[in-house]
Amino acid sequence: MSWEKCIRLLGGWSAYEPGNVEVREASEDGPREVWIALDRKASRYLCSGCGKLRPRYHDAEEREIRDLPILGVPVRLFLWRFRVACPTCGPRLEALDWLDPRSRVTRRMAEDVARLCRVLPIKHVAERCGLDWHTVKAIDKAWLERTLPPLDMMGVDKLIMDEFAIHKGHRYATIITDADTRKVLWVGRGRGKEAVRPFFESIGLEARQRIHAVAMDMHAPFEVEVRAQCPAAEIVYDLFHVVMKFGREVIDRVRIDEANRVRKDKVARKVVKGSKWLLLANRENLTEPSHRVRLKELLEANQALMTVYLLKDDLKQLWGYSREGWARRAWNDWLARAMESGIAPLKAFARNLTKRIDGVLAQCRWKLNTSVLEGMNNKVKVLKRMAYGFRDDDYFFLKIKAAFPGKAR
Ligand SMILES: [Zn+2]
Q1: Torsion over CA of 277, 281, 262 and 296, rounded to 10 degrees?
Q2: Burial (Cβ within 10 Å: 0-12, 13-18, ≥19) of residue 349
Q3: From the CA of 91, how far away is ligand 1's center (Å)?
Q4: Distance between Cα 197 and ligand 1 center (Å)
Q5: How far is the CA of 150 from the centre of ligand 1 (A)?
Q6: What are phi and psi of 376, to 5 degrees?
Q7: Which of 23, 281, 394, 396 is deepest in the core (most CB within 10 A)?
Q8: What is the whole-number distance in angstroms between the Cα of residue 40 and the centre of ligand 1?
Q9: Centre of ligand 1 from the C-alpha of residue 397, in Å
Q10: E strands along 267-377, which residues?
Q11: In terms of C-beta distances under 8 Å and separation of at least 24 residues, what long-range contacts does 77-81 make, across chains too?
């Protein structure tokens, strides 16, 4: 079989057929490429407005379209793109099953690019496919817009809400996740009550009334809105955020106070000052034996750090109870130890948490899958690096939704 025939059989460019096929050798203008001229084959034109076949076209424009490479050699198609003379719709672009309107690459190439964009940064995809950065981004965005399913609240009765910074300290966004399936339902700009209102309005009253529990950060600015929109929902404060807050407001504060207290002892000061990461890391993540030894020595030498470190571990236990009575007893015990410690930042944190303790203990009634939060936080950071070298929030939000499709209920 001649290779022209092979191309003809496998091309799949409906309504067209390959005419002249040429291999262009590499030159200063670019790499080696296969150029395929597509000739018109079909005599009728499918109107993209009404879906009917029409015998006449209105006008045509010459177009250059990229297709998947043949044995690694990039392919460029040259064809006339027609506008149908439709008696019902007027002049309309011809509908083709292999080429989307306004697209500069075939649908199968767009699919390939979008698939690569799931795992590689845009820059690498662009290099690999011989496309420029903006084209790759546009292809991926259009693909996600076309393929991501619409918001579906069927069976959703528990939510996880979280905010994150788009640009550090400036702009924020809110993610709303189905706690059961871990599917990201909605991503929107902002983090206040007005910011999340469009979500609640779009799902309708019935879906709002079905929401039984919403997990969030203790200081989430959208709590008021959730209470107003979902009258049956109980607010649950998730472990991840409370422990992060404890790290920031207690452990790190004590670390700085302790470094100041031992400032005359240069060695001791350096050890305490340089221990931020060690103290805030999850103990499970300290796999390096030398790190464990350092942590042990640090805590043994420092009573205040030891106290807050142990209380952090015990605080986490509160989320492990399924009976509220036991959880409450554990909390009272924790609170007493915190207040007796004489450590000011710890006492302040404990007083603060007392006011909110019902939201912590609510976890006993609603076993919410908030363990997903830490992983989500990390993944969003990776996506930001991969997809967000520019300022297109909509694209970034689509990437987040695509990264958390959820599992079957
Ligand atoms: Zn039409």
Answers
A1: -130
A2: buried
A3: 8
A4: 39
A5: 27
A6: -65, -45
A7: 396
A8: 20
A9: 34
A10: none
A11: 77/13, 77/36, 77/37, 77/38, 77/106, 78/35, 78/36, 78/37, 78/38, 79/13, 79/16, 79/37, 79/38, 80/40
Q: 54 C-alpha to center of ligand 1: Å?
A: 8
- Is residue 237 within 8 A of residue 352, CB to CB? The reply is no
Q: Is 48 in contact with 94 (CB distance < 8 Å)?
A: yes
Q: Which residues are placed with Cβ below 5 angstroms of ligand 1, an ion? A: 47, 49-50, 86, 88-89
Q: Widest CA span of the chain, in angstroms?
A: 92
pLDDT tens track, the chain, 409 positions: 787 788 888 899 999 999 999 999 988 888 899 999 999 999 999 999 999 999 999 999 999 999 999 998 999 999 999 999 999 999 999 999 999 988 999 999 999 999 999 888 899 999 988 899 999 999 999 999 989 999 999 999 999 999 888 876 678 899 999 998 999 999 999 888 899 999 999 999 999 999 999 999 888 888 999 999 999 999 999 888 899 999 999 999 999 998 888 888 888 888 888 888 888 888 778 888 888 888 888 888 788 999 999 999 999 998 888 899 999 999 999 999 999 999 999 999 999 999 999 999 998 888 776 777 878 888 888 888 776 555 788 998 999 999 999 888 7
As a whole number of angstroms, the distance between CA 154 and CA 405 comes to 15
Cα 57 to ligand 1 centroid, rounded to whole Å: 11
Q: How far is CA 118 from CA 4, 202, 247, in A?
A: 34, 28, 33
Q: Residue 129 is which amino acid?
A: C
44 Cα distance to chain centroid: 44
Gap from CA of 85 to ligand 1 centroid (Å): 8
Distance 81 CA to ligand 1 centre (A): 16
CB under 8 Å to 3, separation ≥6 — which residues?
A: 21
Q: Which amino acid is at 345?
A: P
Q: How far is the CA of 53 from the centre of ligand 1 (A)?
A: 8
- pTM for the predicted model, two decimal places: 0.81
Residue 337 exposure: Cα atoms within 13 Å on the Cβ side: 15
